[in-house]
Design goal:
This protein is mainly α. The chain is built from 13 helices and no strands. The radius of gyration is 22 Å and the shape is globular.
């Protein structure tokens, strides 16, 4: 009988193999000379704008998380907020498992505060909002989606529907159902603790009934996805690719779906393969499509890693200054 550790190692080996296979397929039919020429011909002005748009999308994501935290009455100092967010991003990029959410929760947790449930709820709500925008975009661009993406849409749509119904149930009937199901506190300590946590999350989530608090989160999410699509369009311009917004949105969808399983550290294989794949319907050559994928990968991946590194180094510098 195989131990859980062996099964985990086997799963990771399969995922890495699949990631490497996608990386191989991305580079398989590429003329290296043409690829280098495409990379060397990048227009710096447009590339600089693309990098700025990446930084803007990251700022919007941090702003959205801060807004959600405040709605749950969790107020993090800016330094802890930024550090927790980008350390989580870095963990998701570098690790083979998507452990960034755990890193973010543990880093954001304030010592002495009972805020585990609220912080976790904000991240879950983030994922829901992004899934909502993803599915809406897939519906909007369904005619341009390849069969692989259409299959994914068929599997994600029921998940989104179930999550939406659960969220509506929590917001509209949560307190009533909860008090009817659990009218009295259990005498068993661990059950009473679970009851308290569940009651805490139900009460804390009542802000979702208030459109004045919910609409800003939706607006920031929509704006973030617009900026991310703009990043793709700006990279098109940097390579003199005359492509429409349909292409920019298709890249956004396929890359999002491609990196979702976290097949390998860095997701370099899935990212480059699916970014390249998205341009095939628009008659872009393999070399130019791969140049686009490589540039996009670096400008999207490197900034979160650099910011995460800076947030780790900053406390060390402060400590050194404080030392006698």
């Amino acid at each position: 009988m195989k131990s859980p550790g062996n099964k985990s190692n086997l799963t990771n080996a399969i995922k890495i193999t699949l990631g490497l296979l996608l990386l191989y397929l991305a580079f398989q039919r590429v003329d290296w000379q043409l690829l280098l020429q495409s990379l060397q011909s990048v227009r710096i002005f447009w590339l600089s704008l693309a990098i700025l748009s990446v930084l803007l999308s990251l700022s919007l994501k941090v702003l959205r998380w801060d807004l959600l935290l405040r709605n749950y009455q969790v107020h993090l100092p800016p330094k802890r907020l930024i550090s927790a967010y980008f350390l989580g991003q870095a963990a998701n990029i570098l690790l083979i498992i998507r452990g960034g959410e755990i890193v973010r929760v543990t880093t954001a947790h304030l010592p002495g505060k009972d805020d585990w449930v609220e912080i976790t709820a904000t991240i879950a709500l983030e994922k829901y909002l992004d899934l909502l925008l993803l599915v809406l975009l897939m519906v909007f661009t369904a005619t341009n989606l390849p069969s692989l993406a259409l299959e994914k849409m068929g599997s994600l749509s029921p998940i989104l529907l179930v999550l939406t119904l659960m969220l509506l149930l929590l917001v509209t009937l949560g307190p009533i159902l909860w008090h009817r199901l659990m009218p009295q506190q259990s005498s068993r300590p661990w059950i009473a603790k679970v009851q308290l946590k569940l009651d805490q999350i139900v009460q804390a989530s009542l802000w979702l009934r208030d459109p004045r608090k919910l609409l800003p989160a939706l607006a920031i999410t929509l704006l973030t996805w617009v900026v991310m699509a703009s990043t793709n369009w700006l990279v098109f311009q940097s390579l003199a690719l005359d492509l429409s917004w349909d292409a920019a949105i298709l890249v956004l969808i396929l890359v999002y779906l491609g990196v979702l399983p976290a097949l390998m550290p860095g997701n370099v294989g899935p990212f480059t393969y699916f970014a390249q794949l998205a341009l095939i319907p628009f008659a872009v050559g393999n070399d130019l499509a791969l140049a686009f994928a490589v540039i996009l990968y670096f400008i999207v991946t490197v900034p979160p890693l650099l910011i995460a590194g800076l947030t780790m180094l900053l406390p060390l510098k402060l400590n050194r200054k404080a030392a006698p």
